[in-house]
Amino acid sequence: MDFIQIISIILLTLSLCVDVKEVDVMKKEYPKYSVLMSVYYKEKPTWFDESIKSMFEQTIKPNEFVLVEDGPLTKELYDVVEKYQTKYPKEFKVVAIEKNVGLGPALRKGVLNCKYDWIARADSDDISVKNRIEMQFNRIFENPKIDFIGSHHIEFIGNIKNVETYSYKKLPVSYEEILKYSKNRNPFSHSVMLIKKAAIVDSGNYREYHLVEDYDLWLRMIRKGYYCENIDDYLSYVRVSKDLYKRRGGLKYLKSINKFKWEQYKVGYFSLYEYIKSIVPHLIVCILPNKIRETIYLKILRKESK
What we know:
Elements: H1 3-26, E1 33-39, H2 45-56, E2 64-70, H3 75-87, E3 92-97, H4 103-113, E4 118-121, E5 127-128, H5 132-142, E6 146-156, E7 167-169, H6 175-182, E8 194-196, H7 197-202, H8 213-223, E9 227-239, H9 242-247, H10 251-266, H11 272-287, H12 290-299, E10 303-304
């Protein structure tokens, strides 16, 4: 080996060392976060398993997974819980509630049991894309004033590979668009939210509010002055069924959504005109037959794609 070859090898080695150092400097240090999920006895074990798995397979791994057992579960669901307790003994934390109390109270207790500053919501039958958390934190790095952030989602029936069942729900992205949209409809997809724990607690935490527990929390956070955005991408697959459209109808849901929107008027978030404009479509949809309601949700309130 001649002198020139030796010098070339030395220079190449030095350049590789510099590259490694540059990569180390550029490597981001992501905040620690807790995943918050609630489950109850009616959930399907396979869906439950898929949902948990999608969070542990994130490119930015969770530091803690807080599962709230909302009342006694089935043996099959307990088997799934045991599987993840065994696999992730340090991260997987179970908060058991003796009786079923509903989503709002269950999540309220879960929030108080989360250890870290950021909480990633996940539903027990939905699936997050693998880089969901990474994309959300990257946007927070770009705009540090963000206190809670969501994204669009894809609704599906059965299997996420069955693209013919897809329905794309697009939500407002900017803070200004979210404020405007919130006067009519929920501006966020609950199962894909990343939220500062302090903002949740300071705004009063989750409350019992039939089918609008999340909408209620978002508006209280906004009224408190917390800043929010949605990422302009689809970061979650949300499972739907015929029950979704049934639950969006009937007297119980109508009473709940009316009480909630009247409250927004009473606290000054809605004007009287905005309250009326917002509640009338719910009134109409709630009294329609389920099949017609399903068509409205898919053809009008969602962007359907096949």
